């Protein structure tokens, strides 16, 4: 149906994610300011030309009135986005509650709510019901826009019910689901009261993808141990129906970063930063202010390093960009206070009249400022306690072609699987080890830095986000073809 001027038909790709790649701010009754958010998923999919992409998701704003909903729908259509409208109550129960207070911590091995978070567990059932309702709302929008031949790609832990909702409506829909977080050991997953429902729903998809082989393996064992199904080398089998399960490690649009470094504005920023930090080594952390990122542990390791190495105290600075996130969830509010307290203490302890050891910023930087900062950094510290992949580590490597700085990387980030040979891998819980690695990185000879950087740079520039998206979608197409062949036999 999309055949144009004799060219082969272009397949439509419906990308369904909780958050749209643009967030909306209301300016008037029917006027909107749209801000493009360039995260990993967005940049991955912007680069693929083989498909005609439509996004379906939440615009991050409450729009209770019909005029607003109509005008926002029109404004988003220009960006190829289709909104799902969620009211305040459902956002509270589904997004703040079930997604970010239950699934997110659990999938990152922080467990289910305990003690002061216990109050939340009492409303577990209502949050779970809201989660199902929200997933059905996403499904309704997909169903309304779906055309024969489309591929539907569902994303992340917010939408684990979506594959089942979609298949119940149309068994022939091609449905893929990809998880951007870790999938934990089945021993962790089995603590979740709704463990079976979620697994069964995900299995309704034709193809299920994870960042690493380990996450895929954990998912398959959860299905075998909790649901009693059979795990095969290709996935999970349920009474003759196979759901393919595989690893598809995401990447970044590395060219975009490399090109940015050539822009006059960025070169200028780089020069200014070099002057500003002349005589000091620059260490950098860039994280959403999330408990999985291990920011307090990282800062404590830096404190230990300064404690043990007085000669470095005025020769190194740690810049920590902590991007506020999910600020309505109490755990995140507590974390902000905790980080501020530690930073204040260390700056008080080691600061002088002219300099402080930690520059802590509670905000995001625009893309160009971030590239400049990456380029002048001597040592990047990515010390997540758990992380699905972590693309900050990739972005840093992409911007280091001239400096060849060192990456200290948590062994619990998915990226450790791909950048492990070039980075210094650490256990972020072991503050002594991280402090020692900081010393090792700051003193590393140029030839070792070069070798390590080369390894990582090759990886980051060849395993790009475009390649990731194309591989997933082409496998999804193949999976469906295979299934059709099997039913014909
Ligand atoms: C993680 C999740 C994404 C999410 C992002 C930002 O990377 O995997 O699905 O969009 O965090 O979080 P937010 O809650 O602001 O969408």
UniProtKB/TrEMBL annotation:
Q: Family per UniProt? A: In the C-terminal section; belongs to the trehalose phosphatase family.
Keyword Glycosyltransferase carried by entry: yes
Keywords (A to Z) from UniProt: Glycosyltransferase, Transferase
Instruction: List, in alphabetical order, the GO biological process terms annotated in this UniProt record.
Output: trehalose biosynthetic process
Q: Name one GO cellular component term.
A: cytosol
Keyword field contains DNA-binding: no
EC nos: 2.4.1.15
Q: Which residues cross the membrane?
A: none
In which organism is this protein found? Answer: Daucus carota subsp. sativus
As its record notes, the protein acts as a catalyst of:
D-glucose 6-phosphate + UDP-alpha-D-glucose = alpha,alpha-trehalose 6-phosphate + UDP + H(+)
Q: Which GO terms describe its molecular function?
A: alpha,alpha-trehalose-phosphate synthase (UDP-forming) activity; trehalose-phosphatase activity
- Domain of life of the organism encoding this protein: Eukaryota
This protein is called: alpha,alpha-trehalose-phosphate synthase (UDP-forming)
């Amino acid at each position: 149906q999309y055949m144009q001027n004799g060219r082969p038909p272009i397949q439509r790709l419906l990308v369904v994610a909780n958050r749209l790649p643009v967030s909306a701010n209301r300016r008037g009754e029917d006027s909107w300011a749209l801000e493009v958010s360039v995260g990993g998923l967005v940049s991955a999919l912007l680069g693929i030309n083989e498909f005609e992409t439509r996004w379906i998701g939440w615009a991050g704003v409450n729009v209770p009135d019909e005029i607003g909903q109509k005008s926002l729908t029109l404004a988003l259509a220009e960006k190829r986005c289709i909104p799902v409208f969620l009211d305040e109550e459902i956002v509270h129960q589904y997004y703040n509650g079930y997604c970010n207070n239950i699934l997110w911590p659990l999938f990152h091995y922080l467990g289910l709510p305990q003690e002061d978070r216990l109050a939340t567990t009492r409303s577990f059932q209502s949050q779970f019901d809201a989660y199902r309702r929200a997933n059905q709302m996403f499904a309704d929008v997909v169903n309304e826009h779906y055309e024969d031949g489309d591929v539907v790609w569902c994303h992340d832990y917010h939408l684990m019910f979506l594959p089942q909702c979609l298949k119940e409506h149309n068994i022939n829909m091609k449905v893929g689901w990809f998880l951007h977080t870790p999938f934990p050991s089945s021993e962790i997953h089995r603590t979740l009261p709704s463990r079976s429902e979620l697994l069964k729903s995900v299995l309704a998809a034709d193809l299920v993808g994870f960042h690493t082989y380990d996450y895929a393996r954990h998912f398959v064992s959860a299905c075998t141990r909790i649901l009693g199904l059979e795990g095969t080398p290709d996935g999970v089998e349920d009474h003759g129906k196979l759901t393919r399960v595989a690893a598809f490690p995401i990447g970044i649009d590395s060219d975009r970063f490399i090109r940015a470094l050539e822009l006059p504005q960025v070169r200028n920023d780089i020069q200014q930063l070099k002057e500003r930090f002349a005589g000091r080594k620059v260490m950098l952390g860039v994280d959403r202010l999330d408990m999985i990122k291990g920011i307090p542990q990282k800062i404590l390791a830096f404190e230990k390093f300064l404690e043990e190495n007085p000669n470095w105290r005025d020769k190194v600075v740690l810049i920590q960009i902590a991007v506020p996130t999910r600020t309505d969830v109490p755990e995140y509010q507590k974390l902000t206070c905790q980080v501020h307290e530690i930073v204040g203490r260390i700056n008080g302890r080691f600061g002088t009249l002219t300099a402080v050891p930690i520059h802590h910023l509670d905000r995001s930087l625009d893309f160009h400022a971030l590239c400049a900062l990456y380029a002048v950094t001597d040592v990047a510290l990515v010390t997540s306690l758990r992380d699905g992949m972590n693309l900050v580590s990739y972005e840093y490597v992409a911007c280091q072609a001239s400096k060849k700085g060192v990456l200290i990387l948590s062994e619990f980030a998915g990226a450790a699987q791909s950048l492990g040979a070039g980075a210094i891998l650490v256990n972020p819980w072991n503050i002594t080890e991280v402090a020692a690695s900081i010393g090792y990185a700051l003193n590393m000879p140029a030839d070792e830095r070069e070798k390590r950087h080369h390894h990582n740079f090759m990886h980051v520039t060849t395993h790009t986000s475009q390649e990731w998206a194309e591989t997933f979608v082409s496998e999804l197409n193949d999976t469906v073809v295979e299934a059709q062949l099997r039913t014909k036999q």
